[in-house]
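Protocol step 4 of 6: structure prediction from sequence.
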Amino acid sequence: MYSVALVRTTEHLHLPGTVLRLPPEIIYGIISFLRPPELARILTLSRCLRGIVERVLYKELEPETTRIIPCLKTIVAYPSLASVTRRLTICDLTRSYDMLSGYLSLLGRALHSMPALTDLTLLLRGPYAKYFLGCPFRLRSLSTTLTWDDVFIQWMEEQSELSSVMLGGTFVNNTVLPPSALPNLSQISATPLILSSIVPGRPVKCIEICLLEPEYMKDDIMWIITQILSFSTQPISSIQVIAHIASMTETLKALNTIPENIPKLDSFALHAGHGPFTLEFLQNFDAFMSGFDYLRSITFMSQSVEGALSDHAALGNLATEWHKSCPTLECISFPGLSLVHNLRYGWVTLEDLERMLRDRKALLSGLEK
C-alpha cells in the first residue's frame, strides 16, 4: 500500500497534497516500509526525495555478492552516505578476488568512512584485522571469522563498547586479550579456546559454545570449559551448545558437567546440527536438569526431525517427567513443537494456550452481558 501510493505520488509531484508537503520524519517513516527496488524507482522519479531515500537505503547494508564491490566504492566516494550506515554485512570475497586487486584495501577504506556503524557482520576468513585498525566507529555487535591474532586483539581494544560478539575465526596460540579490553561484553558465541580467553573477568551472561569437533564433547574437557566460564563477573543466565554429536552417551556425560559449575542457569539450548535426538537420549536428560537451581527454559534444535522429535505425544510425556526433576521448568522447545507449563492444565502447546485464552475471553464477555 505504501509503495504504490508513494511511487504514484512521486510520478505526479505537481498535484496539490503531494507527499512532499508532509514533515520529513513522516516521509522517512513511510519510505522505511519500502523494498530496495521501490526505493530505487523513487530515486529516478524525484530528486526532492533523494536525500531521505538514500538515508533509508544506506542505513542497513547487506549487498549481494555481485554488488559488494560497487557498494563499497559508493561508500568511499560519498562520505555523506557512509555517515548514515548503522549496520553492515559483508561476505567473504577473497576467493573470488585476488588479494592484490585491492579488495581488502577498498573494504578497509569503506569501514574507515563509517563513523556511525554499530552492527558489523564481516565474514572474512584470515589475518586481515590490520585493515580495520583505527576505524572511527564504536561497535555494539560484531560477527566475524577473522583470525584471532595479536592484530585482532588490538582492534578489539579499540572497540570498547562491544556488548555482543560472534567469533568464528582461527585461534592463534599465545594471543592474550588485555584485561581492560571489551569491558561491556555480555553475549558471546565462540570456540572453547576463544571463550577461555575472553569470558573470565568480563560481565558475560549469555554464552554459545561451538563444539563442532567431536573430541571436545568429553566430560573432562567440558568440565574445564565450564569451570573457566564460571569466572565471568556476572551470573551466566544462558548457555547454548552447538555440537556435532558422535556419541549420545559421551554427550550426556559432558553436558552433566554444566550444572556442576554453572548451577544457576536460567535457559539452556542444545543444537545437534543434522544429528537426530533419540528417545533414549532425551529420557536420560532428567539427571542433567535436576542439577540446576532454577532452570526455566530448555530448547532442542536439530535439522533432523525424525524419530523422537516427530512423536509429539512422547515429547509431552517427557516434559511431565522432566518437570518432576526440575520443578522450575516453564518452557520446552523442540523443532515444530513448543510446550508451556500451566499450573492448572500442565504442559500445553502454544496453540492450546492461545485457544484457552480465547475461551476465557469469550467467557468473560458473556458474563459482562
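Step 5 (inspection) to follow. Confidence is low (pLDDT under 50) at residues 1-17.
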